[in-house]
Amino acid sequence: MAFAVWFTGLPGSGKSAISNKTVEILKREGYRIKILQLDKIRRTITPKPSYSDEERNIVYASLAYMAYLLVECNINVFIDATANRQQYRDTARSLIPNFAEAYVECPLEICINRESKRNDTYAPAEIYNKSSEKKATVPGVNIAYEPPQNPEIHLESNKETIEECARRAAARIQELFR
Asked: Which residues contact 174 (CB under 8 A, 6 or more apart)?
């Protein structure tokens, strides 16, 4: 049976890099995995995003349902999205029987530094700068980020390399969903 893993953490924590590297590792083991990257999907769902609570509710519910549909079709899924509220991830958990959270923990100051150097991403540019100018709401800065209380996978991207985090994530995923 297929599974879904939600990679959550602050913007700039390393979610995308770690989930992509984890896919590479698991592909060598014969797994097929589709990554649902919210920053790409958001461009279709909300081409002019407001990042309001109402919009976030819709976007994250849509993302959870997309993952559910893929898992139902026997496609393994990684969800690459901050999902600042636990309720967003709990929605996916309630829909998908084989579900896990992968918490990519990283101190805010490191996330801010990483985000300032990103240029090859679908994510909005300079989000941390915009949050300090009150032009954007950013989880962990001017709106709350609720980290998972009991994630099945806990990675600290400031203490391990992307490769080390991905190897640990892949091993734990294989353990959970054999």
From this structure: 26, 29
How many angstroms separate the Cα of 97 from the Cα of each of 3, 55, 67? 8, 26, 11
Domains and CATH numbers, the chain: 4-106+145-177 (3.40.50.300)
Q: What is the pLDDT of residues 61-75, one digit of tens each?
A: 999 999 999 999 999
Q: What distance in Å separates the CA atoms of residue 24 and residue 100, rounded to the nearest whole number?
A: 19
The span from the CA of 66 to the CA of 73, in Å, is: 11
Look at the chain and count its residues: 178
- Whether 137 has a pLDDT exceeding 80, the answer reads no
Q: What is the pTM of this model?
A: 0.89
Buried b (16+ CB within 10 A) or exposed e, 27-45: eeeebebbbbbbeebbeee
47: Cβ contacts below 8 Å, ≥ 6 apart: none
